[in-house]
Amino acid sequence: MFTFIKRLQELIAKLKKNKGMWFTTLTVLSVMGIFFCMYVITTMTDRVSKEVYASMTKNYENILKIRIENKKKEFEKLFVSIEQNGTLLGGIENNNKIMFEAISNYLNEEFLKMGYPDLKIKIYNVENKDKVLRNTINTVINTRKPLFGSEVLPEGVFYSYLSPLIRDGEVFGVVEFRDSIHSFQSDFLRQGSDYVFILDKKMLPFISLEYKNNRYEEINEQFIFEKARYDTLFSTTIKNIEEEKFHKFLQSKYIVDDGYFRSIKKITDINGAEIGYMIVGETTESSGGFVHIAENMTNTVTTVALGLIISIILFLF
Q1: What Rg do the C-alpha atoms of the chain give, in angstroms?
Q2: Dist CA 124 CA 92 (whole Å)
Q3: pLDDT score recorded for residue 127
Q4: Domain 85-182 fold
């Protein structure tokens, strides 16, 4: 080690005697140093950006989880109000269809007036053979337990809460509350973000012709979205994402493209079948947006660090 240092000192002394060689060597080393430092800084800022995006993805995922859980709690509260109405329960138990259908219609009209057009209540008497009950309702009857989750129904895609009405250990009815999976968009728009649900094409046959004709637009070979509900640039530009990028999007759970940060969450129905994805995010152009702030911070750090490096190298001259 001592010998190496001594030889290095001798080399530097020789170079200093040859002024041209000395400055050429310093210039080459300085340029190499700048490029190396730029590479290190760029790598570091890229890593920081990825960590920021991953953190935002996790945050949006938690927000969606809370929104869905809150939806379930809202349904449970509504069910309690039904469960405490003795007159209505008697009508359901006695299969008084005129009575409980009139109450259902009244409540649905009230939901509409309150600004919840997709929130609905349906009441079923287990002895009523006029209609074939769908599998989830039969599951509630057989297990005597409430059921909550997303469903693809003839009227569209919903979050449903089904709970049994029990007397003397026997189920005499089922109450269903449902709300559209698209209803989450209004919450995100109020907070300066955006939301869209994309449906897997394989689920389209479960939706009736009345509710699917001219309503859906293709995003790519696998997914579609309800165009009438989603007219924002955040939603309509999703179809511009190239197929390869889209597959990476599904794997990494986020993408920054077309001026937007987007996070994605897979949605499965009550039975565990994959039905589509929720996509949430925000514009990268908003001055108050987290993505914009993070990018400004990393760019500022890069500029300052690079300026310091160049200043130090110039000082050596």
Answers
A1: 31
A2: 8
A3: 84
A4: Beta-Lactamase (3.30.450)
